[in-house]
Amino acid sequence: MPFIIFLLWLVFEILLSARIAEQIGSGFLLLWMLGSIAAGIIVIRISGWKALQRIQAAMARNELPARDMLNGLLLMLAGLLLILPGPITDTAGLLLLLPFVRAPALRAADATVRRTRPDLHEPVTIEGEFVEIRTHERIDRDDL
To answer: Could you write out the three-class secondary structure of the chain?
Structure first.
């Protein structure tokens, strides 16, 4: 089933690209695709660094950075969709760049994670005891 969906997506991308090339010309379509690839690379680079900084700041505050990680993942997905050639993936990538489109996806993912893994949102402390074992004998390399 996923293979059929992939083939349908590929056919729609090709047909829509051909239709757009008829309207604006193949040269402009090529420029559009090269521009979207460049934009995707820029989005991935910038969102990756910003997500890493937000994650480090959250960890410095002793918070779990799950929401920042999901947001960074969605921004990187947007960049990847911009890199893939085709008007459908470009539209999906541009939509994911908009905060009001990402917000419902973040809420849904956050709710799913809270439901399935509640331990990820609150630090877990495991109480226990330990015994330190010190060996007084030293093993020489020659004995091995």
So the answer is: CHHHHHHHHHHHHHHHHHHHHHHHCHHHHHHHHHHHHHHHHHHHHHHHHHHHHHHHHHHHCCCCCHHHHHHHHHHHHHHHHHHCCCHHHHHHHHHHHCHHHHHHHHHHHHHHHHHHCHHHCCCCCCCCCCCCCCCCCCCCHHHC
pTM: 0.72
Angle 98-118-52 (CA atoms, 0-180°, nearest 5)? 45
Cβ atoms of 103 and 46 within 8 Å: the answer is no
Average pLDDT over residues 38-62: 88
The answer to whether 36 and 68 are in contact (CB under 8 A) is no
Question: Domain-by-domain residue ranges, the chain?
Answer: 13-119
Look at the chain and count its residues. Answer: 144
Alpha-carbon gap, residue 27 to 20, rounded angstroms: 11
Q: Which two tokens stand for residue 97?
A: 């760049």
φ, ψ of residue 22 in degrees (nearest 5): -65, -35
